[in-house]
Design brief:
about 375 residues, alpha/beta, Enolase-like, domain 1, TIM Barrel, 2 domains, seven-stranded parallel beta sheet, about 35% helix, about 20% strand
Length: about 375
């Protein structure tokens, strides 16, 4: 049993190495909420993956800050913990705000791993020593430029290429990519950009032999995805629609998808991510780990999660250098020529935080302490 003595919130501003465009718009830099926990003589970190705007989900960094500072952090400071798995019960009175919850819960899991002198991956139930890596490529200024980007990523060893798509940036793109690389493992991600009127067009994508089509329809839908899945041979993958284990079970039972993307922030933390993983495994549905333009703190947590046995498809956990000119962890995440990341087997996540760089990037901070300390 242990307690958290202090929680420090920081907002850092970190420019991307390259602009990243999806159907939501173009991202050139990130405002990122980091949480730092102090307890039992240890310090651990978590990352909130909420964006600058409520576009991917109804959360954004400013709402996450308010809820973390005013609701979640005080509950955590009042608690006596057995481990990361005890955090969801502390937060259950607060509805939603899963990305804010995940940042704190994941940091508690990290502290638990350090206290137990074990790796975070092993503590979560991981069994894989390496994780296969794919890469997510945003919408580009031209098809020709996209082909150059894909060629570069393939040279780096990435095992799966995922293309962001939207109406007007789809068929001609898939045609060009398949003409040049007929056999590569290829998928697409629409981030909910299509509607029922597009069913016939999407059905035509069977000819591209895609690994999956990710979240083509509404962000909160199972029913119409089920209708679409019955019309096409290509597997649908759900991302935004899956908020928890119950959603995963509903989607599988409704045959709304054949693959699930697990994002630890989207489902509220490691505890629920493991539950989604287990539900899918029990029903023979593969999962993979999605990305949210994380810094190395969130990326390290994604690596640990990806070591669980049902993460059998290449995820979006790519190298730090793909997104950041300089990350905030040491060492930075690297991908081998075989397109794999080695899962650290040391204590905790296996990465250390570059506090000096975080200090230089910090634009806002707040600290909360356990009441017993305040009285002392």
């Amino acid at each position: 049993m242990f307690t958290i003595d202090a929680i420090h919130l920081r907002e850092i501003n970190l420019p991307l190495a390259h602009p990243f465009e999806t159907s939501f718009g173009v991202t050139t830099g990130r405002r990122i909420l980091l949480v730092e926990l102090e307890g039992d003589g240890l310090t651990t970190w978590g990352e909130c993956v909420a964006g600058e705007h409520p576009y991917f989900s109804d959360e954004m960094i400013d709402t996450a800050w308010i809820v973390t500072e005013g609701e979640l952090a005080p509950r955590l400071l009042e608690a006596t913990l057995e481990g990361g798995g005890s955090v969801p019960d502390l937060f259950k009175q607060v509805r939603g705000h899963r990305m804010a919850k995940a940042a704190l819960e994941n940091a508690v899991w990290e502290m638990t791993a350090q206290r137990k002198q074990t790796s975070l991956a092993k503590l979560l139930g991981g069994t894989q020593s390496v994780v296969p890596c794919g890469v997510s490529i945003g919408i580009q200024k031209s098809v020709e430029h996209l082909l150059d980007v894909i060629a570069r990523e393939l040279d780096c060893g990435y095992q799966r290429i995922k293309l962001k798509c939207k109406p007007g940036w789809d068929d001609q793109v898939f045609d060009a990519v398949r003409a040049r690389w007929p056999e590569i493992l290829l998928s697409c991600d629409a981030n909910s950009a299509y509607r029922m009127r597009d069913f016939d067009q999407i059905a035509g994508w069977d000819r591209y032999k895609l690994l999956m089509i990710e979240q083509p329809l509404w962000f909160d839908d199972f029913y119409f995805h089920s209708m679409l899945q019955k019309r096409i041979e290509t597997s649908l993958c759900l991302d935004e629609s899956i908020r928890n284990r119950r959603d995963a079970l509903a989607a599988i039972d409704m045959e709304s998808c054949r693959i699930i993307n697990v994002k630890v922030g989207r489902v509220g933390g490691f505890s629920e991510a493991i539950a989604v993983h287990n539900a899918a495994a029990e029903r023979g549905v593969p999962v993979w780990c999605g990305g949210m333009l994380e810094t190395g703190i969130g990326r390290a947590h994604n690596i640990a999660l990806s070591s669980l046995p049902n993460f059998t498809l290449p995820g979006d956990v790519s190298a730090s250098a793909r997104y950041w000119s300089q990350d905030i962890i040491e060492p930075e995440v690297t991908v081998s020529a075989a397109g794999e990341i080695v899962v650290p087997d040391g204590i905790g996540s296996g990465f250390s935080v570059d506090r000096e760089r975080i200090d230089a990037l910090t634009v806002r901070r707040s600290s909360l302490k356990r009441k017993a300390q305040e009285k002392a």
